Amino acid sequence: MLTTDFVLSAAHDALTVGTPMIINSDQGVQFTSNDYLSLWNPETTRISMDGRGRCMDNIFTERLWRSVKYDEVYLHDYDSVLDAKDGLTRYFETYNTRRLHQAHNYKTPAEVYFQKGGMDLNSTVLLS
Questions:
Q1: What count of other Cβ atoms lies within 10 Å of the Cβ of residue 114?
Q2: Are residues 64 and 40 in the same domain?
């Protein structure tokens, strides 16, 4: 079960790595709690919540996680959390910088992102 304590812990961990420009969640009680909402500085992070019954709001994220599961996770029998982390790091490196995406006119997500003025290439954060 996705508890508020778990969500708060994950958000605190994430904030030790960086500050997102936007966060998105559903309207579950853990994401609407004052404790969770007060973590985010409105000067640096926009909060986006899906509307009630808006299952299509997350279609791109859901599609990504489907790809991760079927192209990586289900194909490997990880022996440890470290093995899973290494496999997922390799997967996302390939997905973002080598795999051409039809939806991006056969460019990589990194090419599209940096072409539109996203993060500086030198500040890219990978799983570590």
A1: 14
A2: no
